[in-house]
Amino acid sequence: INILGTTFIMIKSKRPLNEVIKQRRTQMLIHSYLYYHEDTTLVSDDTWQRWANELRDLQEANPKESKIDFFDKEFDGWTGDTGIHLPFNRWVISKARYIASITSLHE
User: Fold this and answer.
1) Under a CB-based contact definition with an 8 Å cutoff, are residues 34 and 96 in contact?
2) At what angle do helices 90-105 and 17-37 cross, to 10 degrees?
3) Three-state SS at 105
4) Among candidates 21, 13, 22, 31, which has minimal Cα distance to 54?
5) How far apart (Å, rounded) are the C-alpha atoms in residues 26 and 98?
6) Predicted TM-score (pTM) of this structure
């Protein structure tokens, strides 16, 4: 939405913007790690791309609010094209493996 020359991105969430950004960053980190380092896919390419584009749009429209002290540097200039460059520290690896393990239990 454009109001008086300012563009606002509408999100379908009643959660605070910083929580939505953190969730999307977490999803990008976890699913990129699984895809590129574990050869595992838990979400479709379309879903991943939709999340990536939403994150890009949110950050571009809200640069100040995107500074949430959660992988800010790594997501600076995020285009949503690929997650191959994203870091995979101990936290990311642990979360990714946990999600993969509980997902396999439900298959």
Assistant:
1) yes
2) 80
3) helix
4) 21
5) 13
6) 0.84
Q: Which residue do the tokens 């997501």 mark?
A: 75
Report DSSP state, residue 3. Answer: E
Low-confidence ranges of the chain (pLDDT < 70): 1-13, 105-107
Closest CA to 22 of 91, 85, 84, 82: 91
Alpha helix ranges (H) inside the chain: 17-37, 45-61, 90-105
The reported pLDDT for the residue numbered 15 is: 87
From CA 53, how far away is CA 93, in angstroms rounded? 23
* Segment 15-19 long-range contacts (CB within 8 Å, at least 24 positions apart): 17/58, 17/62, 17/65, 18/65, 18/68
Give the single-character DSSP code of 2: E
Q: Residue 61 has what pLDDT?
A: 95
